[in-house]
Amino acid sequence: MPEEREFYLKMSLKERWKVRELKRQINSSLFERYMTADKPEKVTALIPRHKQEDIARHFKDDYVLEFLNLGNEYSEKELEKAILDNLKDFFLEFGKTLAFVGSQYALDIGGRENRIDLLFFDRKLRCLVAVELKIGEFKAEYIGQMQKYLAALNEKVRLPSEMESIGLVLCKSKNREEVRFALAGTTSPLKVATYKTQLPSTKLILKRLGQLTRRKELE
Question: Does 105 have pLDDT greater than 70?
Answer without folding.
Answer: yes
